[in-house]
Amino acid sequence: MRKKKRYFVGILCVVLALVVFVRRHYVVDFTPSFLAPLANSDLSIQSGAVDHDQDSSTNVRTRYPTTSSILSINNQQSENPEYTSIADRKLYQLTSLSYPLNSCAGGWEFPSSSTPPSVTNTTTTTASLDSINGSKVICARDVGRLGNQMFEYASIIGIALKTNRTPVFLGMSSTLHDVLQNTSIIENSVKYSNQCEENFVQEPACCKFFPRFIMLDPNKNYRIGHYIESWRYFFEYEAEIREAMKFKDSIVTQASKVVDSLRQKHNRTLTGIHVRRGDYLYIGFVGYKTAPVQYLVHAMDYVRQRFRDVTFVISSDDVEWCKEQFANTSDVTVLQANSPPAVDMMILASLDHMIMTVGSYGWWASFLNPGITVYYRDFVEPGTFLSGQFSPNGTDYYCPTWIALS
Asked: How far is CA 122 from CA 119, 198, 366, in A?
């Protein structure tokens, strides 16, 4: 009996250790339900997590639901093929010049609250972030690295604006705090940290829209989590999000020097490519995939055919692999991996168009870029745990105007 008890305790310790390891090093929370109370005891998951992202969409016109119709569905509707199907999607011709070509909202039936500015730090008519407040708070804790944190931050702002709450980002020591120009929503964590812990609601999946976050009790304070990665949380407030995501002048200046140099050297259309490999090479068992070179070639050919004179600028966590793959390609420049992540993101965002592979870092470089975005359709292994974290074809994750290729 004593041996059995020791055996059981040993297994439990191994499982708990695995849960803690995964939550610290991988971006997706797949804690078994029976361990949730232990695993969710407010572990501070910061820079150890992996940026994640994924999915698919191809070329045709689909109408996405307005906020009111989204709120009328239950949280299972993201799984409804009729609701999410984009198998025949084409690049939508934008109906208004008020939106960047890359806009998640541009061209669809719902208007943005104001005209989104370009990626560069220019003036805008958007209301100050400091004025977003309500009688109750909606909070999120910083989880993961830069791309993950940007999703959490944007979603908190979008939900706060939808529900008349004060947004709080619990991340005074976060990467985002060192990157953003306006950190007032992060500074709110000093004032509202206690209110943030009154109630906690966790999403069932990292990258599907969860309607309950928009329908929380208006008389209570909440912290939500963990990743909140869907454009549906903030598409109506794209101008505010772009304003909130302005980087510090020092970061913009460093990026501008590189971009100016590239434009002087290559008097052509500059298309950024973010190639995520690194940790994804070792966690395929969860469902992560790296994009093969065949996809990159296909995406580059698409951009060449559409824009003719193009130079591709690659940023990657695997510079040597990229150099090997494109050693004999004259229209490709590979950036050295010697800049901070925020500077490289701003470089990509300041180019004319974007090709991304996988990962939330590439997602935000693409969103902030003013041109078109091409992304890897086969971003996740079917039938794996990770595939269940996304709606079919990733429609809750990838912006509807983006172009999926394989």
From this structure: 8, 38, 19
Q: What share of residues in the chain are helix, strand, coil (percent, to 5)? A: 40, 15, 45
**Cβ atoms of residues 298 and 277 within 8 Å:** no
The residue ranges of DSSP E strands in 3-107, in sequence order, are none
Backbone angles phi, psi at 283, to 5 degrees: -125, 30
Amino acid at 28: V
Whether residue 4 is predicted with pLDDT greater than 80 in this model: the reply is no
Distance CA 124, CA 109 (A): 23
The identity of residue 178, as a single letter, is: D
Give the start-end residues of each E strand in 116-260: 137-141, 166-170, 200-202, 222-225
Contact between residue 366 and residue 354 where contact means Cβ atoms under 8 Å apart: yes
**Three-class SS of residue 265?**
helix
Question: For the chain, what is the radius of gyration of the CA atoms?
Answer: 21
Tell me the CA distances in angstroms from 152 to 241, 251, 292, 306, 323, one per residue in order. Answer: 11, 21, 29, 34, 33
Which residue from 165, 191, 127, 118 is spatially nearest to 367, judged by alpha carbons? 118
CB 172 within 8 A of CB 190: yes
Q: What is the pLDDT of residues 87-122, one digit of tens each?
A: 332 322 223 334 566 677 643 332 233 233 333 333
pTM, rounded to two decimals: 0.74
For residue range 152-167, what is the model confidence (pLDDT) as tens digits?
A: 999 999 999 999 999 9
In whole angstroms, give the CA distance from residue 365 to residue 255. Answer: 13
Q: Say if residue 353 is preceded by a cis peptide, omega within 30 of 0.
A: no
How far apart are the C-alpha atoms of 111 and 126, rounded to whole Å? 14
pLDDT bucket at 24, cuts 50 / 70 / 90: very low
Residues near 116 by Cβ (< 8 Å), separated by ≥ 6?
Answer: 98, 99, 100, 103, 238, 239, 242
* Beta-sheet strands, E only, within 210-268: 222-225
Q: The tokens of 334 are what?
A: 């590979």
Q: Which residues contact 227 (CB under 8 A, 6 or more apart)?
A: 27, 28, 29, 143, 144, 148, 151, 152, 203, 206, 207
